[in-house]
Amino acid sequence: MNTAPLARVLIVDDEYYFRQLLIRLVDWASAGFEVAAEAEDGSAALRIIGEQSIDLIITDIEMPNMNGLDFIQEVRKLNSSVKLIFITSYDNFSYAQQAISLGADHYLLKPVDEDAVEQALTTIRAQLTEKWEAERYISQLKRQAGYVQDPEAWRGREEKRQSSGTALIGKAIAHVTSHYAEDTLSLQNTASALFVNPSYLSHAFKKETGESFVEYVTNVRLGKAMALLSLGNSEGEASAPKIATIARQVGYKDPFYFSKCFKKRYGITPNKVHSGSYSDPY
């Protein structure tokens, strides 16, 4: 049975809609990949590579600030073995030559063809699996020969993945803590702030915390609301903030929707907590 993990993909293109098109174009999981992150330029992508384990980069050549060729030259300084697909709308042989010199595995033209992308992924997935199995085999031989302190490549790879995933969720939680009072807080803008793909963040968040991103945000907001409501009733009715004010303070524009969510979570209305006619069962 193949126990190799999904290979992690970084998509780099200054066109948002093209990135989304590429994400939806193929069945990544079936091909053995997951889109871990996306970036709109080389500078943002380099930050991601410095923080996450990336196996495959799919990048446009023509981008503002730092073009794809310059970007990959910097990538090679950080990770000489990462797989690479260049995608561009320019049918220019000189670009292809430079891409090949930088170790490009494939060079595709826009508009991208689904079959061409899938064929490229199939080839790269086979190469990655072969590489990982070779690393495993070599590490086994080293252990058998007595090199017990030499790190196992497979295990080290998984530990790095888990570490980067945990760090990402820590950043997501910190982002929620800083922005829970904003009614615009969402999975999409959190993922954008962290330079990762929303689907990947959603999956990783559920895996790490046991609850969805939306559930976590709701629990944070309602927990803050409970604290504010309880504080209000201890201060006296005159000085206590109104329900609508507290709702806005925890990210709800609609006080009626806030009350509905609050009652569903705690089994009691905000008004009863606010008035002091409620004893905390916890």
UniProtKB/TrEMBL annotation:
CDD domains (UniProt xref): REC_YesN-like
PTM-bearing positions, type 4-aspartylphosphate: 60
Record-linked PROSITE patterns: HTH_ARAC_FAMILY_2 (PS01124), RESPONSE_REGULATORY (PS50110)
Keyword Transmembrane helix included in the entry's annotation: no
Segments forming domain HTH araC/xylS-type: 170-276
Cell location: Cytoplasm
Protein's name in the database: Response regulator
